[in-house]
Each structure stands twice: as structure tokens, then as C-alpha cells.
Design a protein that fits this description.
The protein is an alpha+beta fold and about 525 residues long. It has 22 helices and 16 strands. Helix content is about 50%, strand content about 15%.
């Protein structure tokens, strides 16, 4: 069937997954061209080509496998091939007995003996390899690559455009999202004669597999696509999941062509790499009294009139029936913003939320847009005092919690005596204002102890989650090792400043004394309680 065949062309295993110069016209190729979304890196690439005509530049279009380098190069080959040398994939060689490094050496030889600029599509890993093992006769190119990979800088005649510098997600119109992913999903289901998939869907929706039609219709719902984008964003924030164009198309293929309904394929493990990550956000893993009660009632066959009416409306709208309790919860989650019948599913909206990610975006936005205004200072101070500094004090004083109320920082313990110092930890607003927030995946925290600034730390959503958990009484363990390292480094920075304080405190179970250094008088003064 044409509809299924076109859908299969989206899969990673499809012959259409990688663009080559020799591909011709077909319905699959028409679909690929229709789905193509122009990105910011492509716009900059075109500007670069236009500015390099007649020069001897080398343009490196670099990134990771499947991010769309070959597709961009193919699109501009026809119009620019007379003025440029194009090499679409630097992992390929010209001959079976030739390595990719030797091929690049040969390519650079050709470039140096010509008067044309060179354009290369290359993975970042291959850049490192060539910088390390390329021919000595191309030491100038190797040095330029090394300078770019180590410091991110380059100079004429070498130009580097890196996909990593163009993040898929950003803050758009006041909310976090991805214009690229949203446009791609919309094009897949857009009701237009120009859309080969939609044409095939209309021709065969009565004959094709019921699941294919159901899942395609679900994806036509804008709220479903928005929910998917938010899940992909959460995956990127939490697990640093790399998102390539090829991986996204393979992901969409699984959502529509997978063995179950779209909302179950979305959280299924073992079929798709993105779904393996998204499965960590399965709404069935959320615990609340209301959700648990629904699961128990459904498994026991307890009937509820409103739910029965809702099931009938879902069947009428999407031809979906016969779900188990977990399937219904996943449907509630994916369709939570869609009005259906009596809207029974929206009774569970609050229980299905994961507030951590919304809170992260709020805190990220405060740092990214900070202008030292009074209102933003107040909001940011509340985050620093009530969340970040509170967690630092709890964690730093975990061996002597009584120090927290006294605003002391634990330094060490000797012979049963706890040694501490006052730690006046505050946000450093001037430095926050001057810190650039480059992408949505992290933000800088800037602190000072009294008036001594600490170094800037860049933290992500996992750090914010740990901060929240510590404030709720959680004790970090070995499973938090990746995130706890940053927290320990911040506490070490605080301790480094606090230990130089003029006054130290010595506390036992029975009494406390202080020792004050009076350098002008050349003596130490012993005191009692604060």
C-alpha cells in the first residue's frame, strides 16, 4: 500500500534515510522534499557560500551523524557546484583500499592546486581524527581544525558551521519549544494535496491498517504534537539526548507504524532510541492517590458512568477502544489539552504534571533575561535563597544539621569538636547580568560569600531536581554521582572562602566557643556563644 510504503521511507533503515547526489525522482523523494524544513544553519550556510564565491575558503559543515548535513549540501550542489568543490561525507573514501583520512588528504591536495573554494560535510569525530592523523603537508588545515575543536574559533580561509551551535530547542514566544520539530510534525500531517503522505492517507484510509489511520489522525491533533515536542524537550534536558533529523523521522515512523496506538508507542521501550528515553516520562510511573485509584478501579472492573460516556466519545472520535488501565492513562496524558465529550480525562491533568520541567524553564528564563531590575532581582533572590542556598546549607551541613539555623558552614570535626564558620551566601546579581546564557540546556549560577565572588557554575535540570529533593529531606547517594559533583564543588568553593574568616566556631554537645583572629593586635580572642 502506498500510505505504508511512504511511511516506511521515514524509517532510519530506509534507503531514503541518507541523501546522495544520485537520487532521482520518486514519490519517496517527493515526500522528502516536501518534509524538508529550512533551518537557521542552512540560512547561514547559504550566506557563507554567497560570500565565499571567488575565494579560496574551506567551509566545514560539521555535526553528528544524521543531523542533515548531506541534505543541505545536496540542495545547494546544483546551484553552486560550478564555483565550489563539494564533498558530501568525509567518512567516505574514493576507493575501497583508501581510508577516509587518505581521502581527505587527496581532497585537500586537489583544493590547494585549484582556484575554487571547498565545501565539506564532516562529523565532529572525523575532525578530531584528521587533526590528529592527517598528512603533515596539510598542517595548516590540521591546525585550523584543532583550534576550532579546542576553542571554537577559526579564521580565514577556514570557516566552520557546527550543528551543535544551532540548538533544536529554544525559548520561543515566551515558552520553550522547537520550531524545527513542530514544523516537521505539522508537515507530516498537513491536509494538503502537496503532501504526498496526506494524499495517500485519503486514498487508503478505509483500506489501510486501522492502527495506521488511527495514529495518523491522532498526530493531526495540534495538542498531541505539542505534547510530543514537550516530551522531546524533557528528554533533551534530563538525559542530554541528541536529536538528529534522521532520528526524528525514525521516531515519527515508530509512532505511526508501531505495534500499538500512538500514545502507547510513544512510551514503549525496545523499538526506537527516542522512545527508550521518553519511556522515563511514562505517566503510568506517576504516583498519586487519584491515578492509583483509577488504575485499581479499572483493573477491578468498577464501572463509572462518566468514564463509560468518555470511552464512547473516544471511540466515536478516533475509533479507539479496548484499552487497559495503563493505555487509558497514556491517552489521558497525550490528549489532556483536547476537548473530548464530557472531558473526563481532564480531571487527571494536575496529577499528570511534572512540575520540575516547568520550574526549570522559569528559573532558566530568569537568568537568561536578567537585567538587574527590581522585580527580576526579587524573583531571582527568592530562587537563590529559598531553593539553591537552602540546599547548599543542608548539604554542606549534613554532618551537623544544627549549623543550618546559625547560618554556619561545616568545616571539619576534630576529637568530637565541630569547627564551623559563618557563611553569608548571596546571589551575585552583577555577574548574573553579565553571564551569557547560550542555550536552553543549562544556566549559570553566580554566588558570593560576603563580598567574595565564587566561580560561576553552569547547571542543568538534573541539578535543579537534586536541589529540590535535598530541600525536601533527601540524602544524596551514589546514584546521584554525576549531579552531586557540581553540588560538592559549590560547597567546596563556599568552604574555601569561609575557612579564611576572622572568626571560627568550635561546638560540642555541651558548649560553643569562638576564636577570633585580631591581626592588628597580634592575638587570638576566645569568646563564648554568638
Amino acid at each position: 500500500m502506498k500510505f505504508k510504503r511512504l511511511l516506511d521511507s521515514l524509517a532510519r533503515s530506509s534507503a531514503q534515510a541518507v541523501s546522495t547526489l544520485g537520487q532521482g525522482e520518486s514519490e519517496e523523494e517527493e515526500l522528502k522534499q516536501y518534509l524538508y524544513v529550512e533551518t537557521e544553519i542552512e540560512k547561514d550556510f547559504k550566506k557563507t557560500l554567497d560570500s565565499c564565491r571567488g575565494s579560496t575558503s574551506v567551509v566545514f559543515l560539521c555535526g553528528s551523524s544524521g543531523d542533515g548535513k548531506s541534505e543541505i549540501l545536496k540542495r545547494y550542489y546544483k546551484d553552486y557546484s560550478e564555483d565550489f568543490f563539494f564533498h558530501l561525507d568525509a567518512t567516505h573514501s574514493f576507493r575501497p583500499d583508501q581510508s577516509a583520512i587518505e581521502t581527505l588528504d587527496q581532497l585537500f591536495d586537489k583544493y590547494k592546486y585549484s582556484d575554487k573554494p571547498l565545501v565539506i560535510g564532516i562529523n565532529v569525530g572525523m575532525l578530531f581524527n584528521y587533526a590528529a592523523t592527517g598528512s603533515e603537508r596539510h598542517q595548516d588545515i590540521r591546525s585550523a581544525i584543532e583550534e576550532f575543536t579546542s576553542a571554537g574559533i577559526f579564521s580565514s580561509p577556514f570557516i566552520f558551521l557546527n550543528f551543535e551551535d544551532y540548538p533544536k530547542f529554544s525559548l520561543e514566544d515566551g515558552s520553550a519549544g522547537s520550531a524545527f520539530i513542530s514544523k516537521l510534525l505539522e508537515r507530516i500531517v498537513y491536509p494538503s494535496e502537496k503532501n504526498p503522505l496526506y494524499r495517500a492517507y485519503l486514498d487508503e484510509r478505509e483500506e489501510s491498517s486501522g492502527l495506521l489511520s488511527i495514529n495518523y489522525r491522532l498526530l493531526q491533533q495540534e495538542v498531541v504534537r505539542e505534547r510530543i515536542v514537550q516530551l522531546l524537550l524533557s528528554s533533551r534536558l534530563r538525559f542530554d539526548q541528541f536529536l538528529s533529523a534522521r532520528a526524528l523521522l525514525d521516531f515519527v515512523h515508530h509512532l505511526i507504524c508501531g505495534p500499538q496506538n500512538l500514545f502507547e508507542n510513544l512510551f514503549a521501550c525496545g523499538h526506537n532510541e527516542l522512545c527508550d528515553i521518553i519511556s522515563h516520562f511514562d505517566p503510568c510511573s506517576i504516583r498519586s492517590q487519584k491515578l492509583d485509584q483509577f488504575l485499581i478501579q479499572h483493573s477491578l472492573g468498577v464501572k463509572e458512568q462518566r468514564f463509560t460516556e468518555f470511552q464512547e466519545e473516544v471511540f466515536s472520535a478516533f475509533n479507539i477502544k479496548g484499552l487497559d488501565a495503563a493505555g487509558w492513562l497514556r491517552l489521558f496524558y497525550v490528549l489532556q489539552d483536547l476537548k473530548i465529550g464530557n472531558n473526563y480525562h481532564q480531571e487527571y491533568v494536575e496529577d499528570l504534571q511534572r512540575p520540575l520541567y516547568g520550574r526549570y524553564i522559569d528559573v532558566w528564563r530568569l537568568h537568561a533575561a536578567f537585567d538587574n531590575g527590581a522585580e527580576k532581582r526579587q524573583l531571582l533572590r527568592k530562587f537563590y535563597n529559598d531553593e539553591l542556598i537552602s540546599a547548599l546549607m543542608r548539604f554542606g551541613n549534613r554532618l551537623s544539621p544544627s549549623l543550618i539555623k546559625r547560618k554556619h558552614m561545616y568545616l571539619c570535626k576534630r576529637n568530637g569538636v565541630v569547627i564551623s564558620a559563618q557563611a553569608d551566601i548571596r546571589p551575585d546579581f552583577k555577574r548574573i547580568e553579565g553571564e551569557a546564557v547560550k542555550n536552553i540546556y543549562e544556566f549559570p549560577i553566580c554566588l558570593k560569600v560576603s563580598d567574595v565572588p565564587l566561580r560561576t557554575f553552569h547547571v542543568n535540570v538534573n541539578f535543579l531536581e537534586l536541589v529540590t529533593k535535598i530541600n525536601n529531606g533527601y540524602r544524596p547517594n551514589k546514584h546521584d554521582k554525576n549531579t552531586i559533583v557540581i553540588l560538592e564543588e559549590v560547597v567546596d568553593e563556599v568552604t574555601r572562602v569561609a575557612v579564611r574568616a576572622k572568626k571560627l566556631f568550635f561546638t560540642t554537645d555541651y558548649r560553643q566557643i569562638s576564636l577570633t583572629n585580631e591581626p592588628d593586635d597580634g592575638e587570638f580572642v576566645v569568646g563564648g556563644d554568638e
